């Protein structure tokens, strides 16, 4: 998929320049926002007042009192909300323009040697200026989708920022339980924000392909990814780390070259007292520029992968628009998944053994890790907290984990396991004196066992229809 993205970028080189030009739009909007904020903050009200009697001979009978307008200063909160919201809209705008370019590229016809797409304005041909055409389509038809997608993510982000600001302002008055509540809440909100952002991006790709509305495109994209969840997870994991190392490599190589020049050139060696400050500045600038260029590959990989899934779903006999190397690799992987056909009884027996092995292994690993963690936590906690704070931490962890486990079991209607967990908590509280790490391990292992059981059940139900073993 990365090779396919590289072909797309080579075939449409203007996509590399677009993020640089597009970043000026964000800079211009931020400059406009900052100017408006300064004007609003500096608005003044003038009022004529009488001069005190002892100062009349120096200043006259009246003077002008100038005060800042508090109402307009309070309105800066709404101005800040507009900044966050419109910044997200601008970010999605650039993403959707690039997604439209790569979607057009994928569904265009290859030349005879499959080295480039055929350029022209005929049916199935790639236009001469795909970036301009995608830009026009987004401006003409899809601004409402961008606004709705940003409206979904922005409230979650604002709530998370507000909670973090409250946490920083009350840092000295917090105990262990309060910090844990803030940390757990921030983690949940950040996961929700990441999930909504990913759904929005996939929906924008579908909108670029079909031209449908945002809600319908997001629903179809989630359904398509859910049916190919293994391939999606593998691609996302690999591409994420490759893109991250690409950014770091670009920044590190650029910084190394600059530091070498600073060290060898006589002018810099005589006029610079230290190369640390310019080195840090070069690294930051190079990382930002590298992120802009790697963003093109990130959008290309996501778009081409989703286009391939649509192509594969539309043409059951084989993808029509994919490169032959990509089609061969995908068919080889698909054949390896369905190579072994077994009976239903053997399939059930093998997966029962596998699920039991996973349960036992996970239980052993997490209990071992939790024991080490509990010893480290106990040694550090005794030096940091007094008796009341330690007791509060223990009670909070106990109640929090038990509530999470209760919600999980109540959702899946497993009352018997719920009663067993309550019994486990009572025993552990008496035996280990509310050691939250061991209690956490028990709940985690129990939850993991339920998840393994659910996965096995889903595969079991699926095997009733297919009778295939996916390895």
TrEMBL record:
Similarity comment: family membership: Belongs to the CTL (choline transporter-like) family.
Keyword Zinc: no
Cellular compartments annotated: Cell membrane; Membrane
TM regions (residue ranges): 20-41, 76-103, 139-159, 204-224, 244-264, 276-297, 357-377
Function: Choline transporter.
InterPro entries named among the record's database cross-references: Choline_transptr-like (IPR007603)
Recorded GO MF terms: transmembrane transporter activity
A GO CC term attached to the entry: plasma membrane
PANTHER family: CHOLINE TRANSPORTER-LIKE (SLC FAMILY 44), CHOLINE TRANSPORTER-LIKE 2
The name this protein goes by in its record: Choline transporter-like protein
Glycoprotein as UniProt keyword: yes
């Amino acid at each position: 998929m990365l090779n396919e993205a590289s072909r797309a970028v080579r075939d449409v080189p203007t996509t590399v320049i677009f993020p640089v030009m597009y970043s000026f739009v964000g800079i211009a909007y931020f400059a406009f926002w900052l100017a408006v904020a300064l004007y609003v903050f500096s608005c003044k009200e003038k009022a004529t007042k009488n001069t005190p009697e002892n100062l009349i001979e120096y200043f006259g009978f009246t003077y002008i009192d100038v005060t800042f307008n508090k109402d307009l200063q309070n309105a800066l909160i709404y101005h800040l909300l507009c900044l966050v919201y419109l910044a997200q809209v601008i970010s999605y705008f650039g993403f959707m323009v690039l997604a439209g370019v790569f979607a057009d590229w994928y569904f265009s016809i290859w030349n005879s040697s499959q080295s480039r797409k055929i350029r022209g304005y005929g049916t199935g041909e790639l236009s001469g200026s795909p970036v301009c055409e995608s830009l026009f389509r987004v401006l003409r038809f899809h601004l409402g989708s961008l606004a709705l997608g940003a409206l979904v993510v922005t409230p979650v982000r604002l709530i998370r920022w507000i909670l973090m600001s409250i946490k920083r302002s009350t840092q000295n008055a917090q105990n262990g339980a309060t910090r844990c509540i803030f940390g757990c809440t921030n983690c949940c909100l950040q996961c929700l924000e990441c999930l909504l952002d990913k759904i929005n991006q996939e929906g924008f790709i579908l909108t670029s392909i079909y031209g449908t509305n945002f809600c319908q495109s997001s629903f179809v994209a989630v359904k398509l990814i859910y049916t190919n969840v293994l391939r999606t997870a593998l691609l996302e994991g690999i591409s994420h780390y490759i893109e991250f190392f690409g950014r770091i490599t670009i920044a590190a190589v650029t910084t190394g070259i600059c530091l070498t020049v600073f060290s060898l050139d006589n002018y810099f060696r005589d006029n610079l007292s230290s190369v640390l400050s310019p080195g840090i500045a070069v690294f930051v600038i190079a990382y930002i520029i590298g992120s802009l260029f790697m963003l093109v590959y990130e959008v290309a990989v996501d778009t081409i992968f989703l286009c391939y899934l649509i192509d594969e779903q539309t043409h059951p006999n084989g993808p029509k628009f994919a490169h032959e190397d990509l089609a061969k690799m995908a068919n080889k992987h698909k054949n390896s998944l369905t190579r072994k056909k077994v009976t239903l009884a053997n399939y059930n027996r093998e997966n029962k053994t596998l699920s039991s092995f996973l349960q036992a292994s996970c239980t052993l690993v997490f209990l071992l890790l939790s024991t080490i963690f509990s010893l480290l936590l106990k040694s550090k906690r005794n030096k940091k907290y007094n008796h009341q704070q330690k007791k509060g931490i223990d009670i909070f962890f106990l109640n929090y984990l038990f509530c999470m486990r209760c919600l999980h079991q109540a959702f899946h209607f497993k009352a018997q396991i719920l009663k067993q967990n309550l019994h486990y908590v009572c025993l552990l509280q008496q035996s280990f004196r509310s050691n939250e790490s061991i209690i956490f391990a028990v709940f985690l292992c129990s939850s993991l066992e339920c998840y393994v059981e659910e996965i096995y059940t889903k595969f079991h139900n699926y095997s009733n229809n297919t009778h295939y073993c996916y390895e």
